[in-house]
């Protein structure tokens, strides 16, 4: 029996190894890695007579072993779900209606996009006229001066519209009054964690370990004057080791400001290499070459969000570049559309004035992501971390591919927006029952109050510093569950004021200003065992 | 020292205030404290005045005598700090004095006129008086740009850039002979233009910091922690064509407000807190800390430079608006000091900030019992500071030194008890 299990493990290991060897070859930095190893083999460090041992030794000593380990780490992460453990449990129930809802939602967005084009009489895509291309190229670093009339353009949808879509989801096996909007997500059978399980996941917070973001002058156990100094010392060692998993572990207790950018890049595998620089340039040239209607929507969105935001307005120009390049990035398409949360609907656009042949047809937009009101906010906080637009781009992209796309697509994924809303509701109902009942009595769906926070991962709602601490935790624990937890914690923190108001407007007023909140102490308080 | 009877006794005299600055942030703050507004002719305890009214009160002709229960928000000769030419003069004198004393702070740097530690204002000359000295300096590096500012004006009025001596000569011909001091009252300062400013998002900015002085001798100074950066709306560009485009070069909100790109939601203002986050993240902790330490340094020494010439009237306190530019090597440069920093609120955040500013100023300058009193020792308790932090209190420093030398010194926290 035991032998049998050992045997089957061996087989599955063998299979994984085969898949890895095959898939690693299509990864972006494979070519680079391969060349480096070839160079190493040709060097005197590797002896012919003891090839295997000397090669392994040489790989270790020049850091390539770490590179390979990190590559495997990123490959494993890119496979399947964030937390594969609970996958089995969700398959017990039929959730195909969520997939259908997503397909319908994607169609609706596409329809709305098409009607925008028809109304304004603009093509989905065309070759960019020469004059326009020149102007765009010239103003690439200062696109705030790229003057085009966008007064007719409106965002395709806003978080509010998406929430309506979520509320209208019908579980076919759940009997309910027809035409009545759902009050909550309780009928959707996705398993979400309880507070006890969250305490188990966020064990460092639950145990009351000292964290950055509480008080940097907090005394430290070691030979350091304070916690911040200790974290900087360890953080620098982590960066030097160059091990992605260690960096991820380190983030659980908060990143020092000066190291955060490099730590995030390491965890996400988004450190910029030569081929990334070239690819980024390609994206830029694609923007210059094609004029797609998405460009207008992107520019409009930056104008509506970052340009008016006193935390982010200085970064307006770099955000135009980032978001435009993102729309052309076909490497985004595959991971997003093949994910089981996606409906897999893709538009193909034929270039205006060209025959509908294959070479004149492009996936529209190449990234497959159609922006909505506030989409830019997924990128804004990275402006504080990186001076270099390219470095900023790749970390933003990696973050999006790992987390953010789940916040604007309907899916049964345990990290998807539906599960997160459900988690929020369960936590509120269990741990703030009075508040829950109060919401019921005044006819306000609790999710409605916090949805904009959740959908943006709190970007734009918290001051940048606090937001970055929150996102440290997302990366450190590789989970978005901290977001609904924070939402509940904030409501709980402002409970007294909330209990005194009885309409949507006043509720929003109580929660409008989050600028005084300290995220880490709040979360720690919520997770500490009583 | 004995508490004054009237403050805690049964005599419930209302505190009165008057102001000729018609700003709601001011009036609201007084009214919140239950103070009653009166006119300047009545008996007032607290006068928030424009500089002109303050000068009238202190002028010999009016012969106004303030009593112990009156406070006013300017020092009579604040212009020693806030007039561009006098500030320069005072700093130059201060450096020379330190040098004469053999003070190590006055150590010389590379090149004539350069100081290692006290080099925090751009090289500046007063025109027309120092014209020849300016020409001499100009010839040393003819490629650099200079900025001309009228001494007595504010909000960016009358400022222009010069990159050729001929342009200065042309201006002097046109501006009806300003080089004859008898014919014109207006003098200018000409300073080396900081042409490598730190840019964020490609845009130039300066810092506006608020510094509260409750006494010059001994010096008692507080820094408001909620300062902000003021951004130009247009990308920074040093090309000759843009030399006359003031939207590129001047960060004053009063200038930028007229630009096409001005945004009324944030007013081009970014908090110092966020600036620090950005700098620490992108440039590192050590250099950022050094920058902020240097900013404090340049504020303190500008104050020490004027302290000996200030009329240190005990009825007075003053909140100055410090304008500082950071260059690309993260070195701060003191550009100028304003006696009446704008209290106009351009955005919602601005309003909140200025409201807090006034509130915190009042709680620092008024004794804990809430009644203005010039006999109070001007040592507010820590909870009265609000968003201000103590930069320097020479009295406390002297006390500590005394206690230390006499062996009574125990811990630094004892002074708060």
TrEMBL record, chain A:
Record Pfam families: RabGAP-TBC (PF00566)
Residue ranges of every copy of the Rab-GAP TBC domain listed in the record: 254-478
InterPro entries, per the entry: Rab-GAP-TBC_dom (IPR000195), Rab-GAP_TBC_sf (IPR035969), TBC1D19 (IPR042507)
PANTHER family per the UniProt record, alphabetical: TBC1 DOMAIN FAMILY MEMBER 19
Name listed for the protein in its UniProt record: Rab-GAP TBC domain-containing protein
Species for this entry: Tetragonisca angustula
Organism placement in taxonomy: Eukaryota, Metazoa, Ecdysozoa, Arthropoda, Hexapoda
From TrEMBL, chain B:
An annotated GO BP: microtubule cytoskeleton organization
Keyword check for Nucleotide-binding: yes
GO molecular function: ATP binding; metal ion binding; tubulin binding; tubulin-glutamic acid ligase activity
GO cellular component, one term: ciliary basal body
One Pfam family hit: TTL
Domain ATP-grasp span(s) in chain numbering: 323-366
SUPFAM superfamilies: Glutathione synthetase ATP-binding domain-like
Residues of the signal peptide: none
Subunit structure as annotated in this protein's UniProt entry: Part of the neuronal tubulin polyglutamylase complex which contains TPGS1, TPGS2, TTLL1, LRRC49 and NICN1. Interacts with PCM1, CSTPP1 and LRRC49.
Name of the protein this chain belongs to: Polyglutamylase complex subunit TTLL1
Gene source species: Tetragonisca angustula
